[in-house]
Design a protein that fits this description.
alpha/beta; Aminopeptidase; elongated
């Protein structure tokens, strides 16, 4: 017998529960025999009401709200629904009291509102990026924001990341996604059950909303009505195949205007080279995602492992490059990136498609779409001389992505130091650098002679852009390939 004290509004509520948990070896599940009653404190006013309606003191105090047997296992997804005041929270508290340290409640998650997210999740940067990506906070800009700068939906996703990080077996959530818009709630429900089942964890979520059944796909559904009436249904413990919102989305040919609408949500530059094809993902009138295919660069790491040596004309005929894939933040982590790639690969206009991506290291969205991981590039040898020169000039290579930092450092260099840096860029001649000075549509990567001349005449703003490109090229990238042949 347990006696618990809770505060409810302005009155004090005392709850008494009798909960016996036994383990059934045959099914691998726990059986919770729960009897739960609420008791209100006797006061002069409650006595007056009891006497006015002819109730005894015990009747005035005791309200039995639950008497049931619930069978759940440590890998089940439990969905508790019912109207407000029907006893959902009472049931959740009783279960939590019995599970003790085996369980973690979403409300117990402690957050640091002032530190960047990447500083507050995971033991390492890689672990933090993986956790944040799993819950849909996989935007490079979001990694650097603080908890206080997030929207309500993003805060909910962050708390789930911390829930995962806790390592507890049972994840408990009262008023699950109750304050979120229903689209976001469905996306979070879908991702929650997917992660819990992948990790072998149990979820017990209580809410007044009954619209999450398809996306949560519970193995146990408890519907609590007022009084002692309760309905418990058991289902196979299988993950939901897809988020229900995905079926409402279609892929069709798009335009530059579609890219411009979503480009601000991409961590890389907003500009893209000459597009070959653009496709969009829409839900009714809402733009949900965009993919941009471009002509391939003259060379890139990993290509020689899948294609023979060809002329530039042959490469353009045989190969397209996925230059950008962006999904609206609201719809991330429900497989839409993979959907966009999978459905547009055959429409790219070439028999082969390549993708060079940084995020592919943390999220296998392209592999899920049917692309093959070919190679992982950690360093670019041709950049070593430029990187070495930047180090000699006291640049922090980890901060090269910051335009403000790079501009400030360049502004403090002497004329001689700037000349030395320009000479290092001129000797490198990487195609990505040459592209910055190309003015001919027919030759998008320029020529070496013209490039070297432009480098020596470059102003600080152009030089700052080149230094930032060094930072981008120095990132660990994954080369992926698809062929219809």
């Amino acid at each position: 017998m347990r006696r618990k004290h809770f505060s409810s509004g302005e009155r004090e509520v005392f709850c008494v529960s009798q909960l016996r948990r036994t383990y059934d070896r045959a099914t691998g599940k726990f059986r919770f025999d729960i009897s739960y009653e609420t008791h209100t404190e006797v006061t002069p006013r409650t006595l007056v009401v009891a006497e006015a309606f002819g109730l005894g003191i015990d009747e005035a105090q005791k309200f039995k709200v639950l008497d049931a047997e619930l069978k759940i296992g440590p890998k089940d997804v439990v969905y508790i629904t019912g109207d407000s005041g029907s006893g959902k929270s009472v049931l959740l508290r009783a279960i939590k009291a019995d599970l003790g340290k085996e369980a973690v409640d979403l409300t117990e998650i402690v957050v640091d509102p002032d530190k960047p997210l990447i500083e507050t999740v995971g033991k390492t940067v890689e672990e933090g990026l993986e956790l944040l990506s799993k819950v849909g906070l996989n935007d490079a800009f979001l990694f650097l924001r603080t908890y206080g700068q997030l929207s309500d939906g993003q805060k909910y996703r962050y708390r789930i990341a911390k829930l995962i990080e806790s390592g507890r077996q049972w994840w408990l959530m009262d008023e699950f996604a109750a304050t979120l818009d229903r689209d976001t709630a469905k996306i979070i429900a879908y991702n929650l059950q997917k992660m819990a089942r992948q990790m072998g964890r149990a979820v017990i979520a209580a809410t007044t909303h009954g619209d999450l059944a398809e996306d949560l796909n519970p193995s146990v559904h408890v519907h609590k009505r007022f009084g002692q009436e309760i309905q418990i249904d058991y289902y196979p413990n299988t993950p939901a195949k897809e988020c229900s919102l995905t079926r409402e989305m279609t892929v069709e040919e798009g335009s530059r205007e579609d890219w411009k609408k979503l480009c601000s949500f991409h961590y890389r530059g907003h500009g893209v080279s000459v597009p070959r094809k653009i496709f969009r993902l829409i839900r009714g009138e809402e733009l949900c995602g965009v993919i941009v295919y471009t002509y391939p660069p003259p060379a890139c790491y990993g290509r020689r492992l899948v294609l023979p040596r060809m002329s530039m004309r042959e490469i353009n005929q045989q190969l397209s490059t996925i230059n950008r894939v962006v999904i609206h933040p609201k719809y991330r982590t429900i497989g839409l990136g993979a959907k966009l790639i999978r459905e547009t690969l055959p429409l790219a206009g070439t028999p082969n498609v390549e993708l060079i991506a940084v995020m592919a290291k943390y999220s296998p969205f392209a592999e899920k779409a049917g692309m093959r991981k070919v190679a992982e590039q950690r360093t670019i040898k041709s950049l070593s001389s430029v990187s070495k020169m930047l180090l000699e000039l006291s640049f922090d290579l980890q901060l090269l992505g910051s335009q403000r930092y790079v501009s400030c450092k360049l502004g403090n260099l002497t004329t001689k130091q700037l000349e030395v840096l320009k000479e290092a860029f001129a000797k490198c001649g990487h195609p990505r650098f040459k592209k910055e000075f190309a003015g001919n549509r027919q030759c998008p990567f320029g020529d070496l002679t013209g490039y070297r001349r432009c480098i020596m005449d470059a102003d600080l703003s152009k030089l700052a852009k080149l230094v930032k490109i060094v930072g981008l090229l120095s990132q660990t990238k994954i080369y992926l390939f698809w062929s219809r042949l």
